[in-house]
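Predict fold of Helix-turn-helix domain-containing protein; 66 aa.
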Amino acid sequence: MATTKKKLPVYVSLEEAAEILSVSTKTVRRRISDGTIPAYHCGRRPIRIRLEDLEGALRRIPAIDW
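Predicted 3D structure, encoded as tokens:
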């Protein structure tokens, strides 16, 4: 009998999220505060951010004719 495993979301720390986005942790905290990046924590554990939420926070800049 074949069973399929559910793919679990990948969570990163505040510092890892900042490194992934090439910004400071302060910037990530501001984006969490303004609701751009959803963040989670369980009890007193450190803040965690889903990797796919980081990808969703990025916006494409439209091409501009210079």
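The radius of gyration is 15 Å.
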